[in-house]
Amino acid sequence: MAVNSFREDEKLEGIGKKETLKRLFAHLIPYKFQVASVLFCMLVTVVISLINPLIIEEAIDVYIARKDMGGLARLAAVTLGINLVFIVMVKVRMYVMARISNQILLDIRQELYEHIQTLSFSFFDSRPTGKILARVIGDVNSLKNVLTNAVTTLIPDFITICGVVVIMVVKDWRLALASLSSIPLMAVAIWFIQKFSHVRWQVFRKKGSNLNAYVHEGIAGMGVVQSFCAEEETQKVFAGLVKEHEQSFIGAVRIADLFGGAVDFCWGIGAMILYWVGIQMIGGESVSIGLLVVFGTYIDMFWNPVMNLSNFYNQVITNLTAAERIFEILDTEPDITDSADVGALPDIEGKVEFCHVSFTYDEGTPAETKVLEDVSFQVQPGETIALVGSTGAGKTTVVNLISRFYDVQKGAIRIDGYDIQKVSIESLRCQMGVMTQENFIFQGTVRENILYGKMDATEEEVIAAAKAVNAHDFILKMEKGYDTVLKERGAGLSIGQRQLIAFARTMVSMPKILILDEATSSIDTHTELLVQKGIEALLKGRTSFVIAHRLSTIQRADRIFVIDEGGILEQGSPAELMEKKGHYYSLYMAQFKNI
After folding, report:
1. pTM score, two decimals?
2. Torsion angle of the four alpha carbons 529, 533, 535, 541, in this order, in degrees rounded to the nearest 10
């Protein structure tokens, strides 16, 4: 299968900057009333900030010029009052917007996680877990400031700029024109900078994803690393990935930091032209000292929001790639879905039928691998089928197709006569139990791990399931019995104990079709003898498919299918196949000739 590793940058098919921003800011709509309250607070603060320079002009040209200290004191009191309102409104705005942005991050992360759960095995086969985690955690977190500043910076600063321009033009259009003369230069500079900045931030996100994937892989495989003394080699790889990540960040920041410099330069040019023109005109009928001071204040009030907007734009460019990466996953359609007209699969007896089934991994790609070709067979309810064959022959593929983790390209699979592609996935899988050699143990109590098989199971059902697979006794010997908290992946338990808990989890679900994929390969001989009766109880009355390399574990199977060369080479009971002295006989004798 085509696999994207930590050594390879992800290929991101973007949906366009405008569409990405539109989808991102659409998450504000459910919070429109809270956003409206924030906008009201900001409107009040913008109005107050626009009034303050006019108060200064009034103080200089009227009260100070007339030496009216009483009037100046009254004006100062009014100014103090409205600016206290300003401070309160800023605090309220910050608090409400922080709550909104944090809740939106929760919404996006929840939406992303729920969508990932619907994706097919092919999605997870094609990329490391670390790269998926990078999007769920890091990329989502990076959107917080963009969402917050979209409301608290973009809107009020835009209004401030418009208000300042209007007031300046009304006051004196000549000084206004001088103040704003450097805007065309700024527009050209920002266009040039953003053109290169976005691409570099895309590279930075990809390098970070590679690093995250390698760290996740290294931690998961730490036992192998230490066993083979490979620490030095892995450190070199890690150092190389860190260096790439660092260099991509430096390259992106070098471009991004030009935003502030460009605005500062244009700000300075505008201020110089304003004061040069103003000094030439001062003393005339229309240009007083107070007016020039006001224009000096307003030019700061103009360029400060411009600086904020440029920083926000820089922030958008910086984090837009994160949004693109999130939406790329959200736009990934699962390969396995329910069609519009599916119905629920009723309670089944367990008859399974393959009708001319063919299956190829990565069909139509350079990595295409044909596994099954025109395979047909029938399994009766309650029958136990053992699948044997060489590694890669297609044994696991057969059971994955039954569980509909993949869809066949040709033919059909029927259960009790129902085509599994015409019934809902949930109604199919809820009647199946699947166990592999690496059953995952979640962090939580023993009881909670067993309940994953059936969330509404009673205490009696949990205990009965554990007893059936001979797990009850060792569970009771644990510190708190069924309330003992297990570590992630079952650390602290033996391999056999982890498997027994997984058996109990499958048992409690009471599946109609059971799949055991190398379920006993990691259990020692003593534990295998202990659990064998539990397995027999698990198989009893259920249609079962058992994949096993250890042929001693399948001698009680009703039939054995020898899988290879894209199909079933031979089938029959263990005794029948031994008599044939064909492929199964050769496998059996090769395994037991030295015993």
Report:
1. 0.63
2. 160
